[in-house]
Amino acid sequence: MEEIMLEKSDELVMKLLHFFITEQGYSPIVLHGAKNEIWLENLENSYPVVRIVSNYIHNDEQMSFDLYRTKQILKKVKKKTCSLHMEALSLFVNLGESVHIDDYIHAGNISCANIQKISDLKKYPFILEEFPTITKKTSFKEKGVELFMKITKDISQKNEEESKKAQAVFEQKKPIMTYLLIAINTIVFLSMYLFGEGSRDVSTLVDFGANYGAAVRSGEYYRLVTSAFVHIGLLHFIMNNYALYIIGSQIESFLGRFKYILVYLLSAIMGNLLSIVFSDYISAGASGAIFGLFGALLYFGYHYRIYLGTVLKSQVIPLIVLNLIVGFTISGIDNAAHIGGLIGGYLLTMAVGVPYKSTRSEKINGWILTTIFAVFLVYMAFHGIVL
Questions:
Q1: Which end of the chain is more exposed for a tag (fewer CB within 10 A), N or C?
Q2: Whole-model pTM above 0.85?
Q3: Does the annotation mark 287 as catalytic?
Q4: For strand 49-53 and strand 37-41, is the pairing parallel, antiparallel, or unpaired?
Q5: Does residue 228 or residue 143 have the better pLDDT?
């Protein structure tokens, strides 16, 4: 059987693709009109975008145009993924001799390299610094069709694994804990009418565990939790439970039941602590915990912004901002609890981790920041002056 030979440039492209997809976790970006170039993305890397360009570029004028077009596309990718900064690495495998690559090695937020063979990677220290194993991992004993089959198999297997991970994260699961929280809210709300004077009666609110700074400071710490299940009036009860059903179902599905309930309850506590820092009045409701879920969604969505970037920009962030503005302009809304819960939920999600994304160091940093924030809230609530 006659051996099938690959062009050197095609073989080089395949080896680079294999490295970035199977070793570095990059995924292809689908771009319309981008011919003879492959775009890859990994938003957790210092180079969120890697381009492998096989298009022949024969002079500096064409090179400058390529950089201009790349920067325009990067702006769109940056906007779509809610990224604050977007660095790209462009690897050219078919540059003409008239191109002065040294003038384009660091072109703003794009780093460029002329790679005619794998050993050329060693000419660029910034590549080896970011990808120290790239020369080793792009060396294969297979040749021709065997190399093609191996690389194709490895890439397909990696893509299948990543697809299963995404499916596991985004597959809708039954929100048992969310239903349980809503059930507790409902039981407490009805009990306030059956065994008290109603959900607007001050003494009933206090008896059922509403947040009250003076009582908490005197040792009734349970109020920091119980107040999240007490609501003032039917409208307050309906709105909070509807919000809990909508966002809680999603966060429980994304994080898992244990992490979800941990974020919910601790966000409620942090929101209530900040509440008594700014007010010594009676307050109640699940709003602080729900804003904690918003914080969780922000952190989760940032790590999965390939899937949720548009939703974050168009729905989640505007909704959070709108609610905070309403809280600042309308009296009777405990905006301090909202802010405390929002910050707490974000930090707690960093601490418990996002499936398949969070590293051990990120989780440790999350617990450190959460502890610092919690200690600050406790000190201000119990030893500070009510603001």
A1: N
A2: no
A3: yes
A4: antiparallel
A5: 228
